[in-house]
Amino acid sequence: MTVSSIDNQLGLGLLRQPRSVFFGPGQRRQIPFIVEPLGTSVLICTDERMATTAEFREVVQSLESRALTVHVFSSVEPDLPRSNVLDLQEQFASAGIEVIVGLGGGSCLDMAKVAGLLLSRGGDVRDYYGENLVEGPGLPVVTVPTTGGTGAEVSCIAVVFDADKGMKIGVASAYLEPVAAVVDPELTLSCPPGLTAATGADALSHLIETFTDRSKNPSAEELAAHLYVGKNVLTDIYCRHGLALLATSLERIVADPSDLQARSDTMLAAFCGGMALNTAGTAGIHAIQSPIGNLTHTPHGFGVGALLPYLMRYNLPVRQAEFAEIGRILGVATDSQTELEQAQAAIVRVEQILAALGVPLNLRELGLKPEDFEFVADQALLASRLTANNPRPLTKEDIVAILERGYADDRSWWRI
């Protein structure tokens, strides 16, 4: 039976993950050895920038050296529009693809997941919008992230922007889980500063949201039916480690973009965030960012970063202990302080990290307008799989109040 509490009364732990994960500088050299047993005809999904790099050519040549046939779709667009997915389907539906490699940022990895699904099982990506609507496995997918942020290399969801519907929609199924992930921090060294900042803020938001999520205490039937079952003891392990890494790594990258150890720490933290959100799920921040991003055309990472100060404050009254622990992990809180003081110190420290990255800390800088607040709130509430994870319930009035504070740069402390 389900226990009604935002805390983990069941002591539940649950992870979903690839069969193999290779982490560390230079591990991209494992790609041909991973791919070869999976098939001889390979499709690489990447974007225009990555396709011009020496690292990309190295990967292609390594695959061809194993007598594999390599096809390339190098037109993946940011925020993965459905039209982009249709283009790939039309180009490769009859190409006899046997294995997919996603090489790039989150959109490239999400494209690889939906390509593996659609080139195997057919249909329109719209047929699979939602949770657990995929009836069986697609083509095997190997993910190779080139940014330190999204965690998409280990998640079993792909997010698509459907222009006709005017919103991002997830295809969520355990069948989308990659068979292998290759996480090579050297691939992030060429990442532009703005993208580094946006993806770093995204990683930070994943770890904070999943660590402060609602624990859903699901029944056996609910565990079988749903992917996102809330904060649990195993996701907490990844959150703690990821937050400890980001306590210094993001600011070290700002100081020296060539710092490979800082890049490695950030990429490992992003991986931890992906491992956590894969069963805990993100929450209110991501629900609210999506319509803001659609309206303002601002990077996802900047949107979630700008919302963090206000959603953290909103959730603080019901997640004080978790925020206090974050304060201790980030090194800004001690047991000599009250729990509330520790929690507030954590939130201030997160804002300092975001500011160092150059992330806007209010919604006005994103270009959001007050006349759009109610529309954003209505759209956010449609993302019920996300709002259901928020530890403090969200109504339309609550979301509008959050947006008003975010627009006014009002970082006073909420009271219930």
TrEMBL record:
Keywords linked to the UniProt accession: NAD, Oxidoreductase
The keyword Ligase appears for this protein: no
PROSITE patterns, sorted: ADH_IRON_1 (PS00913)
Presence of the UniProt keyword Oxidoreductase in the record: yes
Molecular-function GO term, any one: metal ion binding
InterPro entries referenced in this protein's UniProt entry, alphabetically: ADH_Fe/GldA (IPR001670), ADH_Fe_C (IPR056798), ADH_Fe_CS (IPR018211), Alcohol_dehydrogenase_Fe (IPR039697)
UniProt domain Alcohol dehydrogenase iron-type/glycerol dehydrogenase GldA: residue ranges: 18-185
Name of the protein: Iron-containing alcohol dehydrogenase
Species of provenance: Cryobacterium ruanii
